[in-house]
Each structure stands twice: as structure tokens, then as C-alpha cells.
Amino acid sequence: MTALLWSSAVAITLVAGVLAGRATVAPPRAPAPDPTPASYTVGEGSVSRSLRFPATAVWPAVDLPAGLAEGVLTSVDVTHGELVGSGTVLYTVDLRPVVLVDGEVPMFRDLLLGSQGPDVAQLRAYLQSVGHLRSSRSSTTFDATTRQAVKRWQRSLGVDPDGLVRAGDVIFSPGLPVRVSTGGASPGDLTGPGVAVVGATASVPSFTVTLAADQAAVVPTDGPVTVSGAGHAWAGLIGSAEQVESTLVLTLAGADGGPVCGAECDTMTPPASGGASVFQADFTIVPETVGPVVPVAAIGRTGTGDHVVTLTAGRQVRVVVLASADGMAVVEGLQIGDEVVLVADHVHDDRPGGGA
Asked: What global pTM score does this model have?
């Protein structure tokens, strides 16, 4: 009997130990989730977005007639990239100046007393513009008054005032001013008719941006652009877009439709190598918009497509998204300081009385 009771006691003890062991080794239960959703406090802010691409500034080459002076190049009086206009001494040949003058008809002969033609009219117009020809009358005839004006001009250049304009003394060229490129010409070189001592480029550079197909898909062709670099920053727009094989070439213009660089074009010079200068072009994808800002993740939609946010108090508020970029949005319909649920459902019950 005693043995039986002892055995029963041992069995009860073993069962109790097993139960206790099970309770000891059971994994801990995970804490209950916090029923309070993450929230965001609405604040005043702004959103915007732009994309940056390299822009190249190129000064297109323009025709500058070669001079007719023959002899030894004794000086080059202009520097590469210099903006020059009518009356500029470009260089000297045998110490005699060669002067750039505005005119459509190229210089092809000596001009002297009795000469007639449009080239004479060009010469007279220049002499009038610099004050050597005091008569304002237009004429195609090289008369005595013109000869006296030529002598005054020759004295100002330091040459013998004989009143004869030699064919090599002047280079007539249209479209002045231009930027000159000196190339490799240097004093001591032999020159003659048809030898281009200096070249020329347009006075204003052309700005272009070349986009690959995937880039062109995200850049609007009618939006604003800011061009910056080399200490400059200009507001502009896309003047034209041209498909060139698999790329899209955008030609930029100033905000007023003129040159991108505006009044500062005169301060810019092309590279000595004759290549392009590189700038940065920032295209506005999302214009800067200011107002109440919330994360895009807090904005859901109703069944009818309206945008809504849910306040932490549980009430839904319809909003108008004014702009969004980089995960944030400026909206109408909220007040600064409102608390909104950070992660909103993307489909909401749009029935009367319905909720998120």
C-alpha cells in the first residue's frame, strides 16, 4: 500500500514537472500591434522638379571675304573671339591697314574720283557714319566731296592721304558686327588676293540640347528652361524641336524669344579651338508650387477618382493636388497643422457615410 502511494506521488510529480517544463519553454507571444496609425502634420512648403542636361553654345561660322591686299602681313590687329564692327582695322599688309566695312558688294577694284556703283555708295555710307563725309546725301558717285572725305579718313589711319582707296584697303562684308577668328595667321606671312587672314563667326551663339529618345519622353517641349554656366544664368524657353535620327535636338531661346544670352552675348567669346562651350540647361518639369504639403502616400482616391486624405480623427477630407514631386504634394483642402494618416488606402468608399 505504501509502495503504491509512493508510485502515485512520483507520477503526479512527473506530470506536474512536464507541464511546468512546457510552460517554461513555450515561445513568448508577440505584443499586440499598436492600433494608432502613423500620422503626418501638415506644414507650409513647396514642391518642384527639374531635369538637367548639358547645353552647347556654338558660334556659327559666317563668310568673311578674303582681302585683296598683297604683300607681307605686318600685324594682326584683332584677337580671337573679338566682336568687331564697321571701321575695324583687321590687320596690316606692308604696314598699310586693311579695314572692315559694312557692305553687301565685295571690294573688287580701286575706288577713285569718277568711280560709280553700289560699292561707292557703301564707302560713302561708312565715311558718313564716322563723320569724315559731312554730306548726308546718298550717292553712288565718287565725287570731289567723297575724295576729301577719303583723305580725312586716310589721315586718321596714318597713311598717305592721296584720296585713292585701293582694292586691298577695304574688306566689305554684310551682317556686321561679327566675331573674328585669327586662325594661324601671324606677322611675316605672305598674303595676297583670296588669302583669308582672319575668319568670322556669328556674334551671337546658338544654344542646343540633344536628347536621347528616353530623355525626350520626359522633357516638355514647351516649358521654361534655365541656362547657366561660366558665371551666367539666363531664363529661357524651347524655341524649336527637331528630330534628328534617334535624337531630339532642342534649340533654346531667351524668355523674350531672342538670344538666350541676351545683352550678355557681347561678353562671351567662342573657344580658341573653334569648338562649343558647354553650359547646363535645367528644364522645369514641375513648376515650384507653395502651399500645404503632405506625403503622396497619405493621399488616396475615392471610387469617383477624387483625391482624399484621412485625418487622424477618422474623417476623410477631399483635396485638390496642385503639384507633386519626389513623394510630396501641395494640396488644397487642408489647413496647416492638420494631422493626417500617413499611409492611406488607395481606394475609398465613396458612398454617403462611407469611410476609408
From this structure: 0.67
